[in-house]
Amino acid sequence: MKNLLIIVALVALATVVWWQMQPTSNQTASTASSETPAPEASPALSSLISSAAPGARVFFIEPQSGAVLSSPITVKFGIENMTVAPAGTDIPNSGHHHLLINLQEMPDLSQPLPASEQVIHFGKGQTETMLELEPGQHTLQLLLGNYLHIPHEQPVMSEPIEITVE
Question: Any idea what DSSP says for residue 151?
Fold first, then answer.
């Protein structure tokens, strides 16, 4: 189901981008060619990025940074000044959690977040999970995504925490 939501979101995004690139009624195909300079920011993409409420933040209720734990671990997500809503539900000042695990490089925050072993989507609006991690040091971070898995205009992101799994 999660993959289906991602596919639907990406198809919708591609359709909007394609539609925005079509010539308007007073624009011929020749004036819409590659001779026309590209806009600096795609209006189609910018219209899909949501704003966040002032003071919005996400954080870890559990575990605390520096914790030494045994796998599986319980991870509880906190949120303030925003509402948790499932992916696909476009409500102002809302979003759903994405858990970033040992992420070396942040993905493009103007695009839907890619699902991977390092970027876990909680598109049903979940606020906690049980996580199986190998023994060792791990970095966890939360990032709120809008109804299309795109981070907000001002990303709502937790501070990273460091935990050790024995």
Answer: B
> Which residue reads 């989507």 in tokens?
121
pLDDT tens digits along 123-143 = 999 999 999 999 999 999 999
Three-state secondary-structure class, residue 38: coil
Distance separating alpha carbons of residues 121 and 129, to the nearest angstrom: 11
DSSP β-ladder status, 94-101 and 83-84:
parallel
Q: For 39-74, what is each residue's pLDDT tens digit?
A: 233 555 567 889 899 999 999 999 999 999 999 999
Amino acid at 56: A
CATH code, residues 50-165: 2.60.40.10
User: What's the token pair of residue 45?
Assistant: 């993409």
d(CA 22, CA 122): 35
Q: Sort residue 81 into left (φ over 0), alpha (ψ -120 to 50) or beta.
A: left
CA pair distance 108, 111, nearest whole angstrom: 6
> CA-to-CA distance for 96 and 149, rounded, in angstroms?
8
